Amino acid sequence: MRRFAGWLLSAPATLAVIGILVVPVAVVLAATLTDPRGPWAPYAAFFNSGFRTTVLVRTLQISAITTVISLVFGFVAAYAVSRAPRRLRSLLIVAAVFPLLTGVVVRAFAWLVILGRNGILNGALVAAGVTDEPFALLYTQGAVIVGMVYLFVPLMILTLVGVLENIPEDLLQASASLGATPTATFWQVLMPMAVPGLIVGAVLVFTGSFTAYATPQLLGGERQTVLATLLQQRAMVSFDWVGASTIAAIMVAITISVVLVMSRTARRLNPVAAS
Amino acid sequence: MTPRLNPAVVAVAVLVYLFLVGPLVIILGASLSDTTYLTFPPQGLSLRWFENIFEISAFRRTIVTSFQVAFLATMLALVIGVPAAYALSRYRVQLPPWLGTLFVLPIIVPEIVFGFALLKSVAAGAGAPIFVALLAGHTVLVLPYVVRVIGASLSSFDFSIEEAAVSLGSPPMKTFFTIVLPNVRAGVIAAFILAFITSLNDVSVSLFLTGPGISTLPIQILAHVEQFFDPTVASVSVLLMVLTVGFMAIVERTLGLTFLAK
Predict the structure, then answer these.
(1) What is the per-residue pLDDT across A71-105, written as a single tens digit (0 to 9) for each?
(2) Which residues of A touch B90 (CB under 8 A)?
(3) Distance from CA of A139 to the nearest CA of B (A)
(4) pLDDT number for residue B97
(5) Is B28 near chain A, with CB under 8 Å?
(6) ipTM confidence
(7) How far is the C-alpha of A118 from the C-alpha of A115, rounded, in Å?
(8) CATH for A56-274, among 2.60.40.3360, 1.10.3720.10, 3.40.50.11540, 2.30.30.40?
């Protein structure tokens, strides 16, 4: 009995994940390979469609740009937070947790208010005499990227604060007192120790923005269709189940490859931290 | 001792935080505006858009559904997740390493793919009513948070206390509820709140499991925003933010918010 206690206790949760997540997702993935037109036909259809490949490239591009911007600004902010006095540091961490716990719809909606045709930004620009006609800021790639960065910078900050806090200030001061320039200290002391955290943050942001739905839907609309919004359209508007399944399979494949490749890179760069 | 930071670093950090907080302040301002369109700073102060939420039946209905689903899914996830987290820390040697990975799958698999897969299996004749499918999806969606947070609490629990109780004749179930569970109470509260918020805010899974008869609040917000540009949604957002602040205060009192940053 005791030998199976672990199995018995974890059985309900295990069966729930397998029955509700693993099997349905496996069925979706399998459906793309058992198409009557031939095993790879749905993928051929996807990659032969100029529109769908454009959507794929656009999604990758938005995710990549979001990741880079979040990395740069998240790193600088996290560094300042990790070096802030204790009370201020707690406050700044709370200020990053709060948006993270506020829903994605609310956070995308905020940018709708700011970037809209009669939004705050256009109102300010017209009032300042910069322009007579409001700019079309919404439904552009830039709007989607701003919304995505807004979504993921808090996650990046929280991931990096944990890593940067563990890098002792003494080490940076030792480097400086031994004659290293700030640039050298940054690249040769701080960065190598921060890289595993940067990789974790980058994976979280990239996979998160690659599969986000609400933000591109609200801020990008049909003009900035991404894989997630295309999947929803194929499934709920066109009832093209095979097409939707193919998009789902491509999203899973890319997400899992990114996670695997990056976690392997993280382990190679820092065997101690990753173990 | 606090090191001196480069002023440029401080300046960028301040801008990043303004970028984070600013839009939320704008929503708050817009929700109080007396105008029929969204504007900031608010013109005239009024709570009419807060009243308007409850005058729209779709908002009333979806708020109830969202809270029902979030509460039930969280409770179900706790019922199955707490034993699983316990098994993972107590019987680690018995269990294969992939089991831990299985419980993070709902975070790794893109949510939108999960939602679509659920819709497909419901449509394929599983015959489940849409509410059951929605609840099942949300339960699995929040399960990783439960397993992880409870697991983290259990990792600092000294299992020899439990063994002492058992060797003194306490039955296993009683031992669990009187010895183990009270020791990880803070973890259970934090897990409940994280799971509840995750379910309440979910878009990608609910998107496929809502129809004319049943919908959740975030889906209703998306639908409303596409038709109207009035401050109602700003008011709903403010209510959700107030709820989040309340939840954060509870977590702060139990585990400390820095716990969430780990």
Answers:
(1) 999 999 999 999 999 899 989 999 999 999 999 99
(2) 5-6
(3) 13
(4) 86
(5) no
(6) 0.92
(7) 8
(8) 1.10.3720.10
